[in-house]
Amino acid sequence: MIQGIGVTDFFIISTLMFFIGVYGFITRKNLITILIAIELILNAVAINFVIINKYLYPEGLHGQIFSIFIIAVAAAEVAIAIAIVIDFYRTNKSVNVDESEMMKY
Amino acid sequence: MDWSYTIWIPLLPLIGFLIIGFVGRKLPYPIPGLIGITGIFGALVLSYITAYKYFFVVNADMTFEPIKAVETLWMTFSDKLHFNMGVLLDPISVMMLVVVTTVSFLVHLYSLGYMKGDPGFGRFFTFLSLFTFSMLGLVIATNLFQIYFFWELVGVSSYLLIGFYYEKPSAILASKKAFIVTRFADFFFLIGILVISYYTETFDFLTLNGMSESALASAGSTSFMGMSVLALGLTLAFVGGAGKSAMFPLHIWLPDAMEGPTPVSALIHAATMVVAGVFLVARLFPMYYHVDGGIVLSIIAFVGASSSLIAAIIATTQMDIKRVLAFSTMSQIGYMMLSLGVSGYDGHHGLGYTASMFHLFTHAFFKSLLFLAAGSIIHAVHSNYMTKMGGLRKHLPITHITFLLASLAISGIYPFAGFFSKDAILDAAHMHSPIYFWIGWFVAGLTAFYMFRLYFRIFWYEDREYHHTPHESPLTMTVPLMILALLSVVSGFIFFYILPFGTYITPTGEEFHMHIDWTLAGLSLAIAVVGIFIAWFMYFKKNNKAEKVANSFGMLYKWAYNKFYIDEIYMFVTKKIMFGVVSAGWMWFDTKIVDGSMNLIGNTTVKTSYAIKKLQSGKMQDYVLAVVVGAVALGAIFIYIWTR
């Protein structure tokens, strides 16, 4: 509980972070940037978990534990995603996501 | 006496068929043939044993009661109608067993040499064994449905063997034609069987033949178009028989069937399968005789006589030697049908029946011999056309002698086989009506003429220079020729004087004495000699007399050469009238409505998927955008609903 900052402010921040992430995910062509956008989305969700836990259900710890899970999963996901990106680069000599359409219909 | 072993007579070739068909087809050269020959040889031995036991041991008192050796239920149609499978032994089926196994065995043997080096060697013997099995099953049938069952099986094996050289378009067309024409006739046969069994409530031959005239009259009391239903059913059954036996006007498939390998022509299209129609009529003969006072028999006699005459006339003009023989077969089967048609029932009146079976018996030998000899000639010359032949007697001595003997036999020269059986037929025809006698007499002359036309044209005429010297066929081919030649020479003599047919095979089972009416025999001998003489005059040395004679006949020659345009008439009727007019409406309905609706469904699916396939762009971000937009939209909807 932080004095002077309400739960709504946190929600505004996390919502902004989430949609910036989504926007980045959709518009960016560079795979690394897309990865960063995914991190933004994940962190927005993690913030939501912590804040809701802290402000609305202060007697439990589920939300905080979930956020730790999310951080752990994000770490694993980044490792895999980087591996995919490197492989993608080896095949296409670029990290432009538009090049991934060779298997359409 | 235990007859249950007779079931192995058809089963041995069936086992041969299965072994060759499933495992033996690709084996090296003689093995599939040897398997087939082993199977048929077993059947041959069993048939001879059966014939000996049936004629000389069990029925030594000359009663010849039919014996049901084996009978099992195959399926049940109704309370009264059962479809049984079994073995019926009576004089004609035992005789047919002997004929079929003998000819089939010799043809198998001959094929060993004839088909050597053919890539389809194994396949050939597979089908040949299948055919032998079916034919044996047909002759021992105990009831109408069993005979129909095997009737179709011989049709299939005939189809397979006519189309044996399936790379040749003409062979494919011929096999299709044979199948369609005989199937068309078999359809009538099936209706006939259904009519007969519906009114008599049985399929069984013994029951059907055992019915008295009054019982038949009451069973078939319903009448339709001036005939009782049973007479109609029998007529329909005869149509089936006419299709299989190539009677006019259903004969069009037989000449084309000569596209098959020559041993097949000898076995199926000369000696065995094509006489199935004669056999069917003979099998039901008492019934044919008793229904409506034998009205169906007069139809049979007419069809037989006209087929015999037409075929003999066409045979005098054909140039393809196998086609001449095919028309000759048709003509001789016409004789058999005529003979059945004019036959009476009791005692000496049953001569026609006996004569028909006698002719069937002798004809099987000399006609298969003629075909096998023709095969030997074709093997040596590599052509079917007699214009490519001439002077072959020096190159093919054995074929020459055997062909000559067979020609003498079929022309009815004393004392060869054909003389006795043909004379018996003419005698029977004369008892019935002089017109049939004179037709038969004229056909006898034509037969002698076209056979010796063939003989002189092939073996004398001119000394031709061949590209390579024709050589006599190997021993596997000439031995069957010699055996058949021996049979063609002696079978008439033996079965007239020593073991007379009239004793063993009669409509009633009572024996009667056959004798030669020398007035009639003299007349037929005279015209046969005249025929041979004319053939000698025209074809002994190279000359242009034949052309002159052909020209003097003018239109008639042209008609006969083109087989009286019967094929063309059929084509006109089917193509123009049936397809063009009668079925045009249905064809429109079928192609536009039935096919159209199905095509519409299919085409719509294809078009829709082409239209929407752009959605799958392969760009990951498009999908994500769709997911996000969808999620936002759903969220908006739910928020709207909840907050309302």
Protein model, in words:
The complex is a heterodimer of chains A (about 100) and B (about 650). Chain A has helices spanning about 5-25, 30-55, 60-90. In chain A, helix 1 (about 5-25) packs antiparallel against helix 2 and helix 2 (about 30-55) runs antiparallel to helix 3. With about 100 residues, chain A is an all-alpha fold. The model of chain A has no long low-confidence stretch (mean pLDDT about 90). Chain A has 3 helices and no strands. Chain B is mainly alpha-helical and about 650 residues long. A two-stranded antiparallel ribbon of chain B has the order 1-2. The longest helix of chain B has about 30 residues, at about 170-200. The chains are: A mainly alpha (about 100), B mainly alpha (about 650). The interface of A and B includes residues 25, 98, 101 and 102 of A.
Key words describing this protein structure:
heterodimer, A: 105 residues, mainly alpha, Helix Hairpins, 3 helices, elongated, B: 644 residues, two-stranded antiparallel ribbon, 72% helix, globular
- Number of discrete helical segments of chain A: 3
Quaternary state reads heterodimer
Which ranges of chain B are low-confidence, i.e. pLDDT below 50, for 5 or more consecutive residues?
Answer: none
Kindly give the count of domains of chain A.
1
Query: Sheet with the most strands of chain A?
Result: none
| CATH fold descriptor of chain A | Helix Hairpins
Beta-strand segment tally of chain A? 0
Give helix and strand order of chain A, one letter per element, not per position: HHH
Task: Give the DSSP E fraction of chain A (strand runs of 2 or more residues).
Answer: under 5%
What's the CATH class label of chain A? Mainly Alpha
Indicate the mean pLDDT of chain A: 89
The value of Rg of chain A in angstroms is 17 Å
The helix/strand class of chain B is mainly alpha
Q: Shape of chain A from CA axes?
A: elongated
| Helical fraction of chain A | over 70%
Order of adjacent strands in the largest pleated sheet of chain B: 1-2
Enumerate how many helices of chain B there are, as a single number: 27
What is the percent of helical residues of chain B? over 70%
**End-to-end distance of chain A, in Å?**
53 Å
Q: Which blocks of ≥5 consecutive residues of chain A have pLDDT under 50?
A: none
